[in-house]
Structures are given as C-alpha cells and as structure tokens.
Amino acid sequence: DTGVSQDPRHKITKRGQNVTFRCDPISEHNRLYWYRQTLGQGPEFLTYFQNEAQLEKSRLLSDRFSAERPKGSFSTLEIQRTEQGDSAMYLCASRADGPDGYTFGSGTRLTVV
Amino acid sequence: DQQVKQNSPSLSVQEGRISILNCDYTNSMFDYFLWYKKYPAEGPTFLISISSIKDKNEDGRFTVFLNKSAKHLSLHIVPSQPGDSAVYFCAARRTYKYIFGTGTRLKVLA
C-alpha cells in the first residue's frame, strides 16, 4: 500500500460540466475526509466518512457537490454544473481510529474555465 | 470564523539557524494538534503532533510547544535546512476532524 491515491491529478473543465474525482485511501483506514484548498488558504473541511457512512458535510458543500464511499473503500467526489469558483485543489485524506493525523493524497487540481 | 490562525504568511531564515512558526487557536475544546508541511503540487505531509495534555514534543530537528493558557502552539526547527523550505500548516482536532490554519511559507536561505 503506497498511501492515499487520488485520480486525476489535474482536471480542466468548462463551466457547467460535471466532474468526478476518485480517492483510494490506505486500506486499513476506516476514516476518509475530503478537503478543498484554494490559493493562500489552508485545507477546508468538506466531508467525512466513517466506513461507508457519510457523517458530516460542510456548509461549503452546496447541493452541486456529492460524495460517496460505497463499501467503505474508495470514495468519489462529484461536482455538477461546475462554476469558476469551484477551481481549487481537492484533497483526500484518511486515517485509522486513534489520535494519529491524516495521511493526505497528492490532490486533484480542478480548473474551471 | 477562523478558529486556527497563522498570522505570519511568510518567514525567511538563514540555513543553520532556528525557524519558529506560530499558530493560535480559539477553541479550548481542541484536544490534539498537528503540523503539516506542504510542497507545491503535493498533498500535505505529517510532521509532528502534540496532545493537549502535553506541552512539548520533540522529533529530531522538530519540536512543537503547546501553551494551553495562551491557546498558542509553535513549531521550532533547528537547525534549519534549505530542504525545509515549504508551506507549514498547523491543524487542531475537535472530535473526528482537523481544522487547518492558513499556512506559513518558510524559506530557508543557503
């Protein structure tokens, strides 16, 4: 297991299109997080899964955003009808139970033109 | 509502000297704190952590100090090396998620 994998690394899309990102966490990690980072800001929490259950969704996540984690393994984050303001780095992180911090993936950089 | 603040957006330090990065927080319910390092085009990587029941944790060249009464933590890097040049984020945990500061860009000058 080489860590948290995110795909794609980069995505350029036209405004109004739908995009989907994938995250494969570390296999023994039951907790999975999505964050968004824009220039000059720290990562901002979007949503959290424990196993397959989505336990929290930030107010930052409008109705155009949906995340899933079927079977408690990989996760997908979909953005419908993308807007220029959605341009950001989308980071996935996972961790096991206990006090340890996250392991982050390398992120998906989304550019909406 | 910025619960975790890093008030210095950037810091430059000579190689071999000490780098001190600061972080302030507002929520006394935070129970665990982390520092992450981030290079361009990569995800953040974990550096060092500290529990709220401790006031210091060391790992090699990195030491984190926690002052609960002041709601302040700091990361000391000594000696600083050019490879330490990156953006550093502090993060604080409440229940199951971490809240991040805005980051400090450290530049270590050779």
Features:
heterodimer; A: 113 residues; mainly beta; seven-stranded mixed sheet; four-stranded antiparallel sheet; B: 110 residues; six-stranded mixed sheet; five-stranded antiparallel sheet; 11 strands
Write the layout of secondary structure elements.
The complex is a heterodimer of chains A (113) and B (110).
Chain A (H helix, E strand, L loop, with lengths): L4 E3 L2 E4 L5 E6 L6 E7 L6 E7 L2 E5 L7 E4 L6 E5 L8 E8 L7 E2 L3 E5 L1
Parallel strand pairs in A: 2-11
Antiparallel strand pairs in A: 1-3, 3-8, 4-5, 4-9, 5-6, 7-8, 9-10, 9-11
Chain B lengths: L3 E2 L4 E5 L4 E7 L6 E7 L6 E7 L4 E4 L2 E6 L4 E6 L8 E9 L2 E4 L3 E6 L1
Parallel strand pairs in B: 2-11
Antiparallel strand pairs in B: 1-3, 3-8, 4-5, 4-9, 6-7, 7-8, 9-10, 9-11
N-to-C order of helices and strands of chain A:
EEEEEEEEEEE
Largest interface: A-B, 27 and 25 residues
What separation lies between the terminal Cα atoms of chain B? 38 Å
Assembly state here? heterodimer
Round the Cα radius of gyration of chain B to an integer and report it.
13 Å
Q: Strand fraction band of chain A?
A: over 45%
DSSP strand content of chain B: over 45%
Q: Low-confidence spans of chain A: pLDDT under 50, at least 5 residues?
A: none
Instruction: Compute the number of helices of chain B.
Output: 0
What's the overall geometry of chain B?
globular
Distance between the termini of chain A: 35 Å
**Main structural class of chain A:** mainly beta
Main sheet of chain B, how many strands, which sense, barrel? 6 strands, mixed
Summed over residues and divided by their number, the pLDDT of chain B gives a mean of 95
Structure overview:
The complex is a heterodimer of chains A (113) and B (110). By secondary structure, chain A is an all-beta fold. Helices cover 0% and strands 50% of the residues of chain A. Chain A has no helices and 11 strands. In chain A, strands 2, 4, 5, 6, 9, 10 and 11 form a 7-stranded mixed β-sheet that branches. Chain A is globular and about 40 Å long. Chain B is globular and about 40 Å long. In chain B, strands 2, 4, 5, 9, 10 and 11 form a 6-stranded mixed β-sheet that branches. A 5-stranded antiparallel β-sheet of chain B has the order 1-3-8-7-6, with no helix packed on it. With 110 residues, chain B is an all-beta fold. The mean pLDDT of chain B is 95. In chain B, β6 and β7 form a beta hairpin. Chain B has no helices and 11 strands. The chains are: A mainly beta (113), B mainly beta (110). At the A-B interface, β4, β5 and β10 of A face β4, β5, β9 and β10 of B.
